[in-house]
Each structure stands twice: as structure tokens, then as C-alpha cells.
Amino acid sequence: MINLLIKKILILSLGVMVIFTSFFVFNQNNQTSYSFIETTDSINPLAPPWQPVSTNDYSSLQYNLDLIDAYEAWNVETGEETITVAILDSGIDTDHDEFVGRISSLSYNAYTEEIGIAFVEDDLGHGTNVAGIIAAQRNNSLGIDGITDNVQLMIVKVNKPGEEGYLNSLITKGIYYAVNNGADIINLSLGSATADSGIQAAVEYAHEHEVFVVAASGNDGNDITYYPAGFQTTISVGSVDENAVISDFSSYGSTIDLVAPGDMVYTTNLENGYAQVSGTSFAAPHVAGVLALLLSMGEFSYEEIWENIFRSSVDLGNVGKDIYYGYGLLNAYNSVSTDLVKITFETFEGNELSPIWVIANQPYDVLEKPSKENYSFVSWFLDSSLNNILTEGYIFIDDTTLFAKYEPIYYSVTFLVDQDTYQEITIMSGEVISNLPDVVVEGFIFYGWYYSTLYEDKYVNQPIQNNTTLYAKIDELMYILTFLDSDGNFYDEILVYPNESVIAPEGPTRSSDELFDYEFIYWDQVLENITQDLIINPVYKKTLIFSAASLSPGIDTISQNQIWIDEGISLINDAISYTVSGVVDSSKVGQYIVIYSIYFEDEKVHKIIRVVNVIEKNEIVNITLNDAITTIIVGNGYLEAGAISNLGTVEIIGSVNTNETGVYKLIYRVSYNNKVVEKSRFVYVIDADFIPLDNIEWYVEKGDQDEQD
């Protein structure tokens, strides 16, 4: 009885990846029937058949191995145990017969952060499905054949226990762990339509450390990009069926790099079983397995393998890379039997060309051509001395640098006088004509060479960039008034008869620089009664920009006799300086002007004024009463303690009659600078039998306060 289990694609919110899977499960002795999309297309082997290899129970049903020429590839390479493939997924059936002895002890549970085989037991089955395609044991008379059964599998479990979705944070952590613990390849049969920046950074980290990252393209059957497959440094893999036709569920788009079998593929499953599965999840591990074969050969660099896996594919669909098949169908035999060489280019100041990879020991025509201003490309050479030219159909054996040879471009310049050729020269592109021909016609004057017979655009040291015709301007005697711009270049020209006056053209603008704004004022020549040719330059009013010089913060209002500190001004450029004029007399109340004169190359270009105010000092008179006894028994004597002041003299007003009970007010007065300040003291004369509770009014009188006028 076939146990049919269809896993629905999980559509999860941001932060959780989707596993790309649907599959049939069966025991070792069971079989199930299935149908394929009918198509007239077929893929023929690219090499003669090789000696058949031993098969296992389901080997005859593994169309996927035939489709990628895995059997032929195994005659070249079957993998090395020094290569480690990391599978970031739901774990693995650690007791499965197909993986005995090849699960790395560095396997890691990213959720529990525990290391070891015991912590990566598969609770979903998806990881076990993926692992079988890569590395199921060959030649063991059971189950299926993996693409390479000699490599180590580093299992990185990135799901929470019992949950089908994978957290972005666990995937990110898992990628870093795999890279830092020796993984050579990382398989990611998972994805989301949302790009996660953490995973992207981890994938780029893997690429920088020359670890291949393979990812499934998605199972939505549309052009919505899934990630991490959509990142630039991953290898994005779509799915095809047994006829090499794109699977209807396989997502497509510009980020697809390769396709591989992913439709009804036999693989391993939980409980030491096997399954028939569909999804781009199972196309991706085919690429991971072939990459492991290439790395096992030990002959190729990371960069070369990256190029190899694409260039050795079988082109499907439109010629070249397309949105459905990418570069084409993965081909294991082509990969392990293809040797690439890298061609780099020395363009000698021409535009930079990216390196290319070509198949070694086969004829190849290099079509790339650099461009260099004022030069034309001649050919590529095999040596920097440019003696050994690259021939058509050259066979590249090793990595090669090609050297560009150029020749100058020359243009003809024809000088016409009254439509007749006066002279013709040849000049190199980009150069200026240093010696213009002079034309002498009796009774007339030659005014120069122009680009047209309208005589509006004059040739004045412009570089020659094409074949050019110049026309001589010959007319009655007139003087040439040549107006230049602020850089001394030609701006305008006026021809004037002798002793005439002209109206000057509007002055040229001049752009502001770091220090100054410029306003055109006038031309530097008088344009009346012209008697000679004139070179005329513009004159500008130069205004220092506001931010170039500014007052430094300071205290500009001080009290009389207070020291004033000049904080000066702030300048943004060492090219400008300043002097200071004006004196502040802090001993006298008044307003003072300080002038900062700003100079540029000994020219005074600006001034800033600071106004300093000296104000009358606000002096406060403080009166302090000396300690005294202010409550006395009638008949006793009263001793006046007096008061002191910080300014002026204290005058005491009032007296105390010690022979009569009562409250007496004494006033202490100071007159200073037309101000009068007073402070009072109350003295209490009481009977000997005074009772405080009955005579409380004695204690509510106020005293000891300041009064100022």
C-alpha cells in the first residue's frame, strides 16, 4: 500500500523560510507509478557511453542521474572525504543506512546551539530527502545512488523542533557556522519572497571565504524572486522533469542560474526509507553534489569552478542564459571533464575589460575589444612587447593575459579660401592645430579660420576629433575685438571699422569658488574710436561668500572698567587673513567700533564690524546690621551695635527710650551715587513681668529689611 503524503508549500510571514517540496513516500520494496509531461524535446549525451557502474535497487528509476550524465562523471571522479557539504535544513535521519560513517561530528543544531550528530535528528524528513540526492551510498545493493558518496555531510539543523518553517536568524547563524567550521559547499533548499539582510550578509561572507552557496529557486511557478536564491553570490537552481522540460512549479526569472532534475525524483526518507519527491528543493542538491565532485578533483580554483558549473551546462530554451533555464541543464560529466583557462586583458589606459573563461585546449576567438580615446584598436597580442599577435582560433592552454595594441587616429583638416582648397593637413585625433595657415590678399585683411561660411564659430585651439573643413574670413580692413571669458578663453568677437565705437557684448558669468562670488562689472578696454586689434578681458566684482569669514562668538557688552576680550573672526581658508583696527576704552562708557579687514593675496576683499558697548557698572549697596540685643527690660540700658556697608557711610536715624515700654525703629541709611539705601532694626522695651503668650503682638513687627530709592 503506497503511503501518499503531499506536503503543502508553507506560505509564511516575514522572518520564516519556505521549504520547496512535494513527495511520495514508500518502503524499500514498494514502487509507485507516475507520469511525465510529454514533449518532443530530448537531450543527447555529449560524449560516448562509458562503462556502466554498479546499480542499487532504485537505480534504474533514477532518471535524474542519467539526465545529468552522472554515471559518465563517476568514471572521472566520485568525490573525496576531505570535501564537506553543509546541508542547512530540518536535519537528517542519523541512522539511515545510506549515510553511515559520513555525517560530520561538527554537525550543528542552530536552535539549541549544540554540536554533534545526536543533535541534528530530522523531525520533518525534508533534510533527509535533500541529503540522499547529494550523498546516498552507491554500490550498496539497496536504495538509491547519490551524486557523491565519499564526501562528509555537515548537517546544520535550522528549524525549531517540530516546526516546518525555518527562522531567518537560524539560517543566518547556520551559514556562519558552516563557513567557520570547514564547509566547502552550503545547500539551501529553502526560501522566501522577502530578502533578509542578515542572510544576505551571511551568503556574501561565504562567497568571500570561497564557500559555494546553492539555493532552490522556488515552487510558485512564476517570476517572483525567492531568496536566498535571488542573491547575487548564490547559485539559483530551478527544476526540470525527465524530459529536461521546465517543471510547471519551478519559479523563473533573471536570477536563475541553472536547472537540474527536481520532478518526481527518488531519494532517502525518514525511518531508513525512501521517497519520490518533487520541488526545486531537490534540484538544488544536484548542483551541490556536482560541485563536490569538482572540488574533489583538487585541480580548480573557486573562481574556475564557479565559471565551470555554468559553462559546462547544456543550453536549453533560448540560446544563452534565459529566464527559465538560466545557463542551462547541469551536466556532471561536462563539469568534471572541462578544464577552463582565464583570459585577462591589459588595455593600456583603454576601458577596463572583465576577465573571461574559455575551455582549455579548444580554438577560441576573442571578440572583446577595448576603446581608447583618440586611438583605434588594432589587435590583441600575447606579450607586452606586442610582438606575438593573437591569431584567429587560438588554442588557450593556460591562463593568459592579452595585451592591446592601438594606432593613433588621424583626421584631415581642409582650409578653404573662397571655396578653393588653400591647404590640407593631417593631424592626430585630440590634438590642436599649432600652426594655422596665414592668408594674404592685397587690399583685404585676414581675420582667421571658421567652421562655416557664416563666420560665427571661430577655430581657436579646439582639439580635432573628426575630419574638418575650415573657412578663411577675408574682408575689408577692420579691427578684431576679441573678448575673453574669466578663464582667458575665447568668448566673443566683434569686427569694427577704424575709429568706430561698439557696444560691448553682455559680460560672461563666472562661477563662484570656495571663497568668492563674482559679478561682472565691465570690460577692461575702452570701446570707442578703435584704432587697433584689442584683446578684452572681463572685470568682476569679487564678493567674499558669507560663510568664508564670520565673527567668533564673544561678549560685546561689558561694564565700565571690565576687561574686554577680542574673540576675533573665523576663516574657512588659510588663503585669507585679516587685520584689526579700532580701540575699546573700557574705562569710559560708550559705543566702540572694531573693524576686521579681510585680505586675499594682499587685496582687501571684505570687512566685518563688531560693535562693543561699555555700560555704566550697576553697583549695589549692601548694608549689614551688626549683631545686637533688641529686647530689653524697661530701665535697662540699650547698646547700639550699628551697621556696616560695602559702599558709602552708614547714617543712623532714630533712638531708643529705655525708660518707656514700646517698639522703637532705628533706620540705617546709606546715600551713594544719587541712590539711597535703608535698612531698619526694631528694638523692644518691655516690662519685667512681660508674658509672651498674652502679648504676642510684640513679635509680629517687621524689621531688618532693605529699602532703596
Could you characterize what this model shows?
This protein has 709 residues and is mainly β. An eight-stranded mixed β-sheet has the order 5-4-6-3-8-10-11-12, sandwiched between helices. Strands 37, 39, 40, 41 and 42 form a five-stranded mixed β-sheet that branches. A four-stranded mixed β-sheet has the order 16-15-20-18. The protein contains eight helices and 42 strands. Mean pLDDT is 87; it is low at 1-55 and 695-708. The chain has four domains: 16-27 and 46-336, Peptidase S8/S53 domain (Rossmann fold, 3-Layer(aba) Sandwich); 339-408, Immunoglobulin-like, CATH 2.60.40; 547-615, Immunoglobulins (Immunoglobulin-like, Sandwich); 623-708, Immunoglobulin-like (Sandwich), CATH 2.60.40.
Features:
five-stranded mixed sheet, 709 residues, Immunoglobulin-like, eight-stranded mixed sheet, mainly beta, 11% helix, 4 domains, disordered N terminus
Short structural summary:
With 709 residues, this protein is mainly beta. Helices cover 11% and strands 32% of the residues.
